[in-house]
Please model this.
Amino acid sequence: MRIKRSLQAAALIAAAVLLGLFTVQGTYALWNATAVATPGTVSAASFDMVLTPGTGQATTMTLSNGTAATVALSPNGTLGPGTPVHGALVVTNDTNAGGQFNTVITAGTPAVANVNGGTLAGYISVSGKLAATTAECGNATGYLGIGTGLASLPVAKTASAIFCFQVSLNPGAPTSVKGQAVNITLPLTARQCGVSGGC
Model:
């Protein structure tokens, strides 16, 4: 009689274990069924910097085809010995990335090239400064040689940095350079804070 009850108890335990395995397997199958996610859309944030010269015509730093934008700065007057000219450029952090996205904008070393074989470039110097308003660009104080670059402080999303550039003619320039022209190129770069050395 004891043997029969032991067999019945063993069968009941075996059934409970089997039922337990079925439950676990059923739950596992349910997990598999709900673990599949439907495909979604992933969008990359834009890293747009808007360049606005004194003329007010804004453009993004990188065009839609991936090339760098070119912005022309119009000087405020006529360049002459002792009479520098200047221009303002507003650079706005226009990214739509989430979270904090501060950037540092750097104006690189200027390149001055003669037009039509002239010699004027040798008598031109370019300097720059950062300002709180574009009107400050007209104040001759504070301009320094750009050298290896002029960098802004970190610029937050929707905020701007104002760069002032001044072009001067060496007072000892010969009269032969009168009427000559030069092209001045100032490369701008923008870097997100925390990337490649931070801010």
